[in-house]
């Protein structure tokens, strides 16, 4: 049973962020859920309630995204995102330590926060993470940014009511999270923030290169097992195994039936992911450096 759920805006010095907090501490670290690029806290709707059965779990919308779309940040990078998250934890949650869980682009933010605030972190889970160093994906990212800009323009012309081509990504989320996720994907402000994030990935990677991951922190990398082709899958799994090697207690695991998106949004895949995060969080209680 979930003890507590709080949805609402939290005022920070430069703006307000939407936060969804569930559960309470029971001797385990709390969990922070960091969504991927263009995603929101609603994408964790299958995962968060499961984790909240045993500890405090916080999901939020980064500045410019989802219900935080009213805050257009002056800087979109890892340092400013980490500073905003730190301030949010100070105001909207209990004390640490925290297990940081980041999906896709959110994994870069989780990795950076752990590097600059290791005293607040019990462990890190990277869920099918975006590469943390250049890998030749620049043209694909620019093409996606251009496509999102086109979707954004259509949304403005229809006053935010244009059906989003991204709707299929969230169709398996439970209600009302599905409607919340769809609303974000049809909001021109949210789409503009998504474009800004895509264009800043190179900068975020450079920031990560300047702040090595603390080897003492436990690290779990969870990969999706389904890709368009075997060659891409082999390359990404090798990259994820390398990422797990950033920590002395790092390990890599696989959810065979999951794709990059369904690892969060499909019920069966999300349950598998939640179980892995829960086991990892429980193990952090007895890991040196997690107290």
Based on DSSP secondary structure assignment, what is the total number of beta strands? 8
What order do the SSEs take from the amino end to the carboxyl end, as H and E? EEEHEHEHEHHHHEHEHH
How many domain units? 1
* Helix/strand class: alpha/beta
Question: How far is it from the N-terminal to the C-terminal residue, by CA?
Answer: 26 Å
Strand content: 15-25%
Describe this structure in words.
There is one protein chain. The protein has helices at 48-51, 78-92, 105-116, 138-157, 177-185, 188-199, 201-209, 230-244, 262-265, 267-284; strands at residues 5-12, 15-22, 30-34, 57-60, 98-103, 121-127, 219-224, 250-255. Helix 3 packs parallel to helix 7 (201-209). It has an eight-stranded mixed sheet, with helices on both faces. It contains ten helices and eight strands. The longest helix is centred in the middle third of the chain and has 20 residues, at 138-157.
Short description, anyone?
The protein is of the alpha/beta class and 291 residues long.
């Amino acid at each position: 049973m979930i003890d507590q759920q709080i949805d609402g805006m939290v005022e920070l010095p430069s703006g307000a962020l939407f936060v969804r907090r569930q559960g309470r501490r029971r001797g385990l670290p709390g969990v922070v859920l960091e969504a991927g690029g263009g995603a929101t806290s609603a994408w964790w709707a299958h995962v968060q309630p499961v984790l909240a059965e045993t500890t405090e779990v916080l999901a939020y919308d980064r500045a410019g995204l989802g219900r935080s779309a009213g805050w257009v940040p002056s800087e979109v990078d890892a340092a400013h995102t980490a500073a905003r998250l730190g301030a949010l934890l100070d105001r909207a949650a209990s004390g640490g330590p925290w297990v940081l869980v980041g999906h896709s682009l959110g994994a870069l933010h989780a990795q950076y926060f752990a590097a600059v605030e290791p005293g607040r972190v019990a462990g890190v889970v990277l869920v099918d993470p975006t590469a943390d160093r250049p890998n030749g994906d620049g043209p694909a990212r620019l093409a996606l940014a251009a496509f999102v800009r086109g979707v954004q323009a259509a949304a403005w012309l229809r006053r935010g009511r244009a059906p989003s081509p991204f709707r299929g990504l969230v169709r398996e989320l439970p209600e009302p999270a599905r409607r919340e996720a769809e609303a974000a994907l049809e909001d021109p402000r949210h789409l503009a923030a998504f474009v800004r994030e895509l264009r800043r990935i190179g900068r975020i990677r450079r920031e990560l290169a300047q702040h090595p991951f603390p080897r003492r922190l436990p690290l779990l990398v969870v990969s999706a097992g389904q890709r368009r082709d075997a060659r891409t899958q082999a390359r990404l799994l090798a990259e994820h195994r390398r990422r797990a090697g950033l920590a002395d207690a790092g390990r890599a695991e696989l959810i065979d039936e999951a794709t990059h998106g369904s690892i969060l949004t499909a019920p069966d895949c999300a349950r598998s992911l939640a179980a892995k995060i829960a086991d990892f969080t429980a193990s952090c209680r007895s890991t040196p450096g997690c107290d």
